[in-house]
Inverse folding.
């Protein structure tokens, strides 16, 4: 049986690196990797010790034939997102349309788009589920809503094309050993503090998050490939969410993290403050998705890999 030819756009992103690491050892996947900086992708492949993937500049997309296209293009950095609000819609739309144009001539190809839980809006006082409705203040739109609106707009465009195979995966949280430790995410800040022997400063407010392990994201994509043809959106989830203070206690007990509670501390929240940013919906079960990792198990596994590589 021929391997599934997978085109991956945005191959230098955090999510893409985890997919590449999981897929390159497999004989049933043939990877074609597209990025604005192909040399960075080649460097990453060398670090993995893998060579069975082709690398292209992103403007070369569409010249080959693909069974699956995975879109990981986007602004993944909170700071860059804050500084380039006007680019959110342009970048999201630009590459989405590029892929849709390809699908117009190759309707059997499956398009996997990395969407976001932010498509539900900004109210995460409770987790969302299959009955939840997107909530945006249309008469007073705020900057922190732009990212979610861009994702929702792309999803609506995809549902308007029911004859094409398109899946939107709403990612609420994701963590791997390939995370950029200079970014302002909770887990990157924790690990950066450990590496630099610094004290983490955080607020007294607890929050709940759901972190996907790369193998579970691959498992979800594989389930979509198996269930094709389909046109749908799925919330991505681990086996169990985790609270901020559970995470802090784990790092304190395991790695000696020192942290300080400061009521006046303001964390960077470009897409808004979210208390319970995860989904209780289990629609993906219908296509055979069963996550292998809880959030804390995934954090433990990937963090151990980070410190083992020192």
């Amino acid at each position: 049986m021929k391997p599934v030819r997978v085109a991956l756009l945005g191959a230098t992103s955090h999510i893409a690196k985890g997919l590449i690491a999981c897929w390159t050892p497999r004989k049933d996947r043939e990877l074609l990797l597209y990025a604005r900086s192909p040399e960075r992708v080649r460097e990453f492949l060398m670090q993995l010790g893998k060579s069975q993937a082709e690398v292209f500049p992103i403007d070369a997309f569409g010249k080959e034939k693909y069974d699956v296209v995975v879109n990981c293009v986007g602004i993944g950095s909170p700071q860059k997102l804050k500084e380039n609000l006007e680019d959110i819609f342009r970048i999201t739309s630009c590459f989405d349309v590029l892929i849709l144009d390809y699908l117009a001539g190759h309707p059997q190809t499956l398009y996997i788009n990395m969407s976001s839980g932010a498509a539900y809006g900004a109210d995460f006082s409770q987790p969302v589920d299959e009955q939840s409705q997107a909530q945006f203040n249309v008469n007073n739109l705020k900057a922190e809503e732009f990212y979610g609106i861009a994702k929702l707009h792309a999803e609506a465009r995809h549902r308007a094309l029911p004859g094409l195979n398109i899946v939107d995966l709403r990612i609420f949280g994701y963590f791997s050993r390939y995370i950029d430790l200079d970014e302002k995410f909770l887990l990157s800040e924790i690990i950066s503090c450990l590496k630099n022997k610094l004290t983490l400063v955080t607020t007294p407010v607890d929050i709940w998050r759901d972190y996907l392990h790369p193998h579970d994201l691959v498992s979800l994509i594989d389930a979509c490939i198996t269930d094709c043809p389909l046109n749908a959106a799925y919330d991505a989830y681990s086996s169990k969410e985790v609270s901020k203070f559970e995470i802090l206690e784990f790092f304190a007990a395991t790695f000696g993290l020192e942290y300080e509670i400061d009521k006046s501390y303001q964390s960077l929240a470009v897409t808004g403050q979210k208390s319970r940013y995860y989904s209780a919906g289990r629609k993906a079960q219908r296509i055979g998705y069963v996550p292998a990792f809880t959030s804390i198990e995934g954090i433990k596994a990937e963090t151990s890999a980070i410190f083992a590589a020192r």
Remarks:
- The first helix runs from residue 14 to 23.
- The chain has a mean pLDDT of 93.
- The radius of gyration is 19 Å.
